[in-house]
Amino acid sequence: MDDLIVKTVTKLIIPFIQLYGIFVILHGHLSPGGGFAGGAIIGASFILLTLAFGIEYTKSILSAKVTERVEIGGVIWYIFIGLIGIAISGVFLGNRVAGFPMGTFGSVISGGMISLITIGIGLKVASTMISLFHHIIEED
Amino acid sequence: MRYLNLILILFLIACAIAVERTKDLVSAIVIFASYSLVMAILWLILRAPDIAMTEAAIGAGVTTVLFIGVISRTRRMEK
Amino acid sequence: MKNYLILITLTLLLIVLVSSLNEMPVMGDIASPAYNEVAEYYINNTQEDTNITNIISAIITDYRAFDTLGETTVLFTSITAVVSVLGFSIKDKKE
Lengths: 140, 79, 95
Fold this sequence. Notes:
The complex is a heterotrimer of chains A (140), B (79) and C (95). By secondary structure, chain A is mainly α. Helix content of chain A is 71%, strand content 0%. In chain A, helix 2 (35-53) crosses helix 3. The longest helix of chain A is centred in the middle third of the chain and has 26 residues, at 64-89. Chain C has a domain at 26-87.
């Protein structure tokens, strides 16, 4: 699709969409949202980039190898946090008993492992959206 | 508020019937996207903003694009 | 004949659903059966247990974190299936 209007608007709007997605993920434990919604927003921004500039351009920024690595890394990161809980306190995915720092109530750094898990889920959902769309739209 | 709920739910039922009756699959996908959008507003009225955000991002955004990507690889009209 | 059967079945289903609609609790009703001691526990103890403000986030990533791990695994399995079916192309075979 070679449309000047679509390309210009996409260039302008994509940083704001991604910033909003990162905000939703990082504030998942304070406001509505969380890993799934934020990851879907970030994935949708890359889908918009693919629709405007073509699949080759998006793959030069974010190759299939990177999305696969991030996707596997998201699941491994989740299980790794659970194993930290087993190693310290004997409870899988334990939060306060495993000694994660709790922080001050209501600030961004609070809640121990919850924000770490939310970041992992967000990265995983975003890379799932991107690689699913690329595999469906890719031509042989 | 009561009448807004009624209108939205009637629109939802009409969308669900129209998706099933339409022969053109691209029109069916556009109607399905509007179904998801109305569903997101209804989640917001039911005081579930988490689900509303996820529905608006996944149901109305990503699912539509994925369906259109699949249709571009197959045929447009239902047999 | 077949159409009449479908119509009768759907009419019966409509009658059952509409008559059960009157028995449903109003939204936000304290006396509804879904509002039991589990919800009360989450509302009272979330701040003490997890130190965060969003109770829903506390449920899905702390109290029910194992379920969310299963959900993540479902996503992983689905993308693995898609990649193994669609990821094969002629270009990869030549290399």
